[in-house]
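User: ok so my PI wants both of these folded by tonight, can you help

Assistant: No problem, let's get them done. Here's the first:
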Amino acid sequence: MTAATIAHETSTRLRLKLPDGVDQEALRQALAALPGVMTLRFAPSARSVVVGYDGRPAVRQEILARAARFSAAAAAKRGPVRAPTGIPLEAALLAGALVSYAWLGSFDISVLLSKAGTLPREVLTLLAACLAASAG
C-alpha cells in the first residue's frame, strides 16, 4: 500500500490504514493541531489510526489530505518500486529440467530449438549455458 486508505468510517470517525514508513508521531501532531479533531488513537503494529472529529466535511477532507501528504512523504523516502532483477524462476526451473533430460540422454534438443521463437531470451541464454556446461 502506498497511500492512506479509509478502513472504516462513521459520520464522526475515520479509521485509516497507513502505508509502511509513515512517520506516525509527526502525523499525530499534524492531526492533533487540526481544529475539529477530537480524539486520536494510533495502532502502530496495525499501521492504523482512528480519528474522532466533529463531523464537518471540511475537517474530514483535511484529515484525509494530511494523511495523504504523510503517505506521499513515506513513499518518497522508500523510492521507486523496482521490479526484481535476474532470471525468472520459471526459466531456471525449465533449464534445470532440460539439463537433467540431456544428461539422461532422453531429451531431443531439436524439439526445444523448434520452439525457440516462443521462449523468452533469458530461458534460451540460461539453457545454452547449462547445456554447454553439461557437455564439458
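One down. Here's the second:
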Amino acid sequence: MGYMETSNHGSLYWFGLALLDKDFKIYLKKKCYYNRYPAMEYLARKKVFSDITNRMRRTFPKQFNFAPISFLVPEHCEELETYMSAHPNFFWIGKPSCGRGGEGIMLLQKYNDIPKNLLTNQEKDLLVQRYVKNPLLIEGKKFDLRLYVLVKGYDPIEAYIANEGLARLCTEKYRQPTKENMKNMFMHLTNFSLNKNSENFIAPTENFLEDDIGSKRLMTSLWKGLEEQGYDVAKVKEKITDTVRKTIITLEPYLLYNYHSKVDTEHQEAKNFHILGIDILLDKKLNAWLMEINANPSLCMFIEKDPIPGEPEPDKILSDLDRFVKTKVIGEAIKIVSGQGNDDYDGTYEKILPVEDGSFDCYYIWNRATELFELMISCGKQTD
C-alpha cells in the first residue's frame, strides 16, 4: 500500500487491540493519526451495544427497530422468561457478550434451554436475541454481509461506508429452525470462523472476480446476483445505509463522552479514526437487520482451518479475495483520514454522515442534551 513501518517516527499509529492506559500518552501527540477511538471495543460488546440500542429504541420506537428484540442475561431473566412464554413459537440465539467467531453461540426455544449456570453468572453474561427466521437466501443458503465502515473525528463524527465488503454463506441448505435441526450451526450461523471448518466449505479462488462461487464472496457479486433475480438493489443499499447511519449515531454520545474524559475536553485537532466491521442480515422482505458490530474486524488475508487434535496443522492459504477487499478498505481509509492521495482515491468509500439535509439531526442525543443544558443555564442567568 506504499506505507513504511517505523518504531518511533511515524505519522500514523496502528493499534492492534483496545487502547490501554499507557497508550494515551502516545494518543496525545497531536500531529499523529490513530486507528482507535477510546472505549470502542467496550461499546461494541454484544451486551453493551444491545443495551444502548434498546435505549434508542425506547426513544424512537419506529425508527430504531433495525436490531432484533434482545434481552440481557442474567439482568433481564424475568422479562425474558415472560416474553418467551408468551411467544412459544419463536426461536432465539444466545450469544456470549465477549464471544468471537461463533464461539459459545446456541439456538434456544424455551427459557429452560438456557444453561442454568448462565442465569446467575455475572461474569459470563449472555445476549439472547430473537432469531430472524425468514432470511434472504443465496442458492438455498443463509448468508450475512460484513460491511466495513470508517468513522473519524468529532463534532461531528463522520462516517463512510465501503462499497465493497464480504458476503458470508452458511455451508448447509437452510431450513427454518426446529427442535431437530437447531443444533446444526452450519445451517443457522453465518460466522466464517465456524463455516470454514465445514466439509462443505468452498474456499474463494483466484478467479473470484469472474467466478465468485465460494462460501465467502464479494458483496458486489451478491448485488449482481440479486439484480439478475429482479431485486431492487438500490433499495436494499438504501436500507442498509439507513441502518448503518443509525448505528453510528447510537454510538456517538458514548464516543464523545469517552474522548472528553480521556483525551481532550474540547475535541481540538482530533485525528483518530476507526474501521468497524458491521454485520447485516437481509430477510425476504429486504429489511436490513443489524446483527452486531465489531471493533476489531478481522483483517486477516489467509484461510486456515482450526487444527484437529492429533492431526497435522492445516495449511494456511492466502485468500486473494480477502486481500483484494481488505487492502482497499485499509488503504483508502488512510487516504481519507490523512487527506493525502486525493488524486488517486478510487471511491471505495461513500460518506454517509453527517447527512447534509439535516434529516437525521433529531437523533443526535448528545446535541439535544447540550442544547437543553445551555437553555437551562441561560434561563438561570435570566432569573438571577
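The first strand starts at residue 12 and ends at 13. The chain has two domains: 40-45+56-65+137-307+314-383, 69-131. Good luck tonight!
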